[in-house]
Amino acid sequence: MKRLFFALFLSVSVIAGFGQKSVDRLFDMYSDKDNLFTMHLSGILLRFVLNSDNDDEESLPQEVTEIRLIAQKDDQVKIPDFYKMVMKNLDTEGYEEFIRIKSVDQNTILLVKSHGREFNEFLMVAGGEHNVVIQVKGSFSFKDAQKFSANVR
Questions:
Q1: Which of 80, 82, 99, 118 has the fewest CB atoms inside 10 Å of its own CB, making it the most exposed?
Q2: What is the pTM of this model?
Q3: From CA 26, how far away is CA 20, in angstroms rounded?
Protein backbone atom coordinates (compact mmCIF):
# COMPACT_ATOMS: atom_id res chain seq x y z
CA MET A 1 0.00 0.00 0.00
CA LYS A 2 2.85 2.39 0.83
CA ARG A 3 4.48 1.65 -2.52
CA LEU A 4 1.23 2.37 -4.36
CA PHE A 5 0.79 5.67 -2.51
CA PHE A 6 4.42 6.64 -3.17
CA ALA A 7 4.12 5.75 -6.88
CA LEU A 8 0.92 7.79 -7.19
CA PHE A 9 2.49 10.77 -5.39
CA LEU A 10 5.60 10.58 -7.58
CA SER A 11 3.50 10.39 -10.77
CA VAL A 12 1.43 13.45 -9.83
CA SER A 13 4.57 15.40 -8.92
CA VAL A 14 6.28 14.54 -12.20
CA ILE A 15 3.20 15.47 -14.27
CA ALA A 16 2.85 18.79 -12.43
CA GLY A 17 6.55 19.50 -12.92
CA PHE A 18 6.42 18.77 -16.65
CA GLY A 19 3.40 21.03 -17.07
CA GLN A 20 5.25 23.95 -15.48
CA LYS A 21 8.40 23.20 -17.46
CA SER A 22 6.30 23.33 -20.63
CA VAL A 23 5.24 26.90 -19.81
CA ASP A 24 8.83 27.82 -18.87
CA ARG A 25 10.04 26.30 -22.15
CA LEU A 26 7.41 28.32 -24.02
CA PHE A 27 8.64 31.58 -22.48
CA ASP A 28 12.25 30.64 -23.20
CA MET A 29 11.40 29.72 -26.79
CA TYR A 30 9.69 33.04 -27.58
CA SER A 31 11.90 35.35 -25.51
CA ASP A 32 14.36 36.02 -28.33
CA LYS A 33 12.01 35.98 -31.33
CA ASP A 34 11.74 38.97 -33.63
CA ASN A 35 8.70 41.19 -33.07
CA LEU A 36 7.94 39.60 -29.65
CA PHE A 37 8.84 40.76 -26.17
CA THR A 38 8.63 39.05 -22.81
CA MET A 39 8.05 40.52 -19.39
CA HIS A 40 8.32 38.97 -15.94
CA LEU A 41 7.00 40.68 -12.81
CA SER A 42 7.44 39.27 -9.33
CA GLY A 43 8.65 40.27 -5.90
CA ILE A 44 8.95 43.93 -4.93
CA LEU A 45 8.17 45.30 -8.40
CA LEU A 46 4.93 43.31 -8.58
CA ARG A 47 3.91 44.49 -5.09
CA PHE A 48 4.55 48.08 -6.20
CA VAL A 49 2.35 47.62 -9.29
CA LEU A 50 -0.44 45.93 -7.31
CA ASN A 51 -0.40 48.58 -4.58
CA SER A 52 -0.17 51.62 -6.87
CA ASP A 53 -3.21 53.82 -7.32
CA ASN A 54 -4.47 53.15 -10.83
CA ASP A 55 -7.69 52.20 -12.61
CA ASP A 56 -6.55 48.62 -13.28
CA GLU A 57 -6.16 47.58 -9.65
CA GLU A 58 -9.64 46.07 -9.72
CA SER A 59 -8.55 43.61 -12.40
CA LEU A 60 -5.77 41.86 -10.43
CA PRO A 61 -6.22 40.31 -7.00
CA GLN A 62 -3.71 41.27 -4.30
CA GLU A 63 -2.65 37.62 -3.96
CA VAL A 64 -0.82 37.62 -7.32
CA THR A 65 2.75 36.35 -6.89
CA GLU A 66 4.01 36.35 -10.48
CA ILE A 67 3.03 37.67 -13.92
CA ARG A 68 4.72 36.67 -17.17
CA LEU A 69 3.86 38.00 -20.60
CA ILE A 70 4.76 37.33 -24.23
CA ALA A 71 3.34 39.93 -26.59
CA GLN A 72 3.79 41.15 -30.11
CA LYS A 73 5.70 44.43 -30.46
CA ASP A 74 4.08 45.56 -33.70
CA ASP A 75 0.54 44.44 -34.57
CA GLN A 76 1.10 45.59 -38.15
CA VAL A 77 3.58 42.73 -38.71
CA LYS A 78 1.51 39.56 -38.71
CA ILE A 79 2.76 36.35 -37.10
CA PRO A 80 0.88 33.63 -38.95
CA ASP A 81 -0.76 30.95 -36.82
CA PHE A 82 0.65 32.28 -33.51
CA TYR A 83 -2.19 30.66 -31.54
CA LYS A 84 -1.67 27.25 -33.18
CA MET A 85 2.11 27.52 -32.78
CA VAL A 86 1.86 28.28 -29.06
CA MET A 87 -0.79 25.64 -28.35
CA LYS A 88 1.29 23.02 -30.18
CA ASN A 89 4.26 23.75 -27.88
CA LEU A 90 2.19 23.95 -24.69
CA ASP A 91 1.48 20.95 -22.51
CA THR A 92 -2.00 21.67 -21.15
CA GLU A 93 -2.02 18.64 -18.83
CA GLY A 94 -3.09 19.81 -15.39
CA TYR A 95 -4.95 22.84 -16.75
CA GLU A 96 -8.71 23.19 -17.08
CA GLU A 97 -10.34 25.33 -19.73
CA PHE A 98 -11.99 28.31 -18.04
CA ILE A 99 -13.14 30.22 -21.10
CA ARG A 100 -12.65 30.05 -24.88
CA ILE A 101 -13.49 32.84 -27.30
CA LYS A 102 -13.31 32.36 -31.06
CA SER A 103 -14.00 34.86 -33.77
CA VAL A 104 -13.00 35.31 -37.39
CA ASP A 105 -9.77 37.14 -36.57
CA GLN A 106 -9.02 36.11 -32.97
CA ASN A 107 -8.73 32.93 -30.87
CA THR A 108 -8.41 33.22 -27.10
CA ILE A 109 -8.29 30.54 -24.42
CA LEU A 110 -8.01 31.01 -20.67
CA LEU A 111 -6.71 27.95 -18.84
CA VAL A 112 -6.59 27.58 -15.06
CA LYS A 113 -4.93 25.38 -12.48
CA SER A 114 -6.87 24.95 -9.28
CA HIS A 115 -6.48 23.38 -5.89
CA GLY A 116 -9.66 22.82 -3.95
CA ARG A 117 -11.80 25.94 -4.12
CA GLU A 118 -8.98 28.24 -5.23
CA PHE A 119 -7.20 28.90 -8.50
CA ASN A 120 -3.40 28.88 -8.47
CA GLU A 121 -2.66 29.92 -12.04
CA PHE A 122 -4.22 31.54 -15.08
CA LEU A 123 -2.73 31.01 -18.50
CA MET A 124 -4.16 32.98 -21.41
CA VAL A 125 -3.18 32.38 -25.03
CA ALA A 126 -4.52 34.68 -27.73
CA GLY A 127 -3.70 34.70 -31.40
CA GLY A 128 -4.91 36.47 -34.48
CA GLU A 129 -5.33 40.22 -34.47
CA HIS A 130 -3.56 40.37 -31.07
CA ASN A 131 -0.91 37.78 -30.20
CA VAL A 132 -0.24 37.35 -26.50
CA VAL A 133 0.48 34.79 -23.79
CA ILE A 134 -0.14 35.80 -20.17
CA GLN A 135 0.60 33.68 -17.11
CA VAL A 136 -0.61 34.87 -13.70
CA LYS A 137 0.25 32.90 -10.55
CA GLY A 138 -1.08 33.32 -7.05
CA SER A 139 -4.13 32.37 -5.03
CA PHE A 140 -7.50 33.44 -6.40
CA SER A 141 -11.13 32.87 -5.51
CA PHE A 142 -13.82 32.13 -8.08
CA LYS A 143 -14.94 35.76 -7.80
CA ASP A 144 -11.38 36.92 -8.59
CA ALA A 145 -11.35 34.57 -11.59
CA GLN A 146 -14.64 35.99 -12.88
CA LYS A 147 -13.31 39.56 -12.63
CA PHE A 148 -10.08 38.59 -14.36
CA SER A 149 -11.84 36.77 -17.23
CA ALA A 150 -14.27 39.69 -17.69
CA ASN A 151 -11.31 42.05 -18.08
CA VAL A 152 -9.69 39.67 -20.60
CA ARG A 153 -12.73 39.83 -22.86
A1: 80
A2: 0.74
A3: 10
